[in-house]
Amino acid sequence: MAEYLASIFGTEKDKVNCSFYFKIGACRHGDRCSRLHNKPTFSQTIALLNIYRNPQNSSQSADGLRCAVSDVEMQEHYDEFFEEVFTEMEEKYGEVEEMNVCDNLGDHLVGNVYVKVGVRRQVGLRKG
Fold it and tell me: Which segments constitute the C3H1-type domain (predicted)?
C-alpha cells in the first residue's frame, strides 16, 4: 500500500495532495482547494507569487478605458523588471540557472516568477 501511495503522490490520482500545487506551486482553487498544498522545506526553485504586473493588463485611464502601451514600452518594462529581479536573486542566492516570468491571465499564475538557483544553493523555507 505504501508503495502505491508513493507512486501516485502529486499526480491526478492522488486524492489527498493537490497535483497542480505540487507541479507549479500554485493552484487555481487557492484556499478553497479540497486537497493539501504541501510546501517543500527546501527547493532549488523559488516561487515569487504575483509580482510582475503587465502594463497592458493594468493600465487604464480615469474613465475606465484601456491605455495603449506600445510594444517597445512593453519590452522596456519587462527587461527592466527581469534585470532587477535577476540581479537581486543572484545577490541573495548565487547563480541563477533559469528564471521564468508568467504573463498568464489565470489568477493563480498571473505575475508569478519562478527562479531556479544552483544546486549548491538550495533555499530553505523559514517558519514565522
Answer: 12-40
Domains of the chain by start residue, with CATH: 1-38 (no CATH), 40-127 (3.30.70.330)
Strands 113-117 and 45-48: antiparallel
Residue 17 near residue 35, CB atoms below 8 Å: yes
CB-CB neighbours of 80 under 10 Å: 10
Higher per-residue confidence, 36 vs 84: 84
* Grid coordinates of 45: 526553485
pLDDT tens-digit readout, 44-81: 889 898 899 888 776 555 565 666 788 899 999 999 99
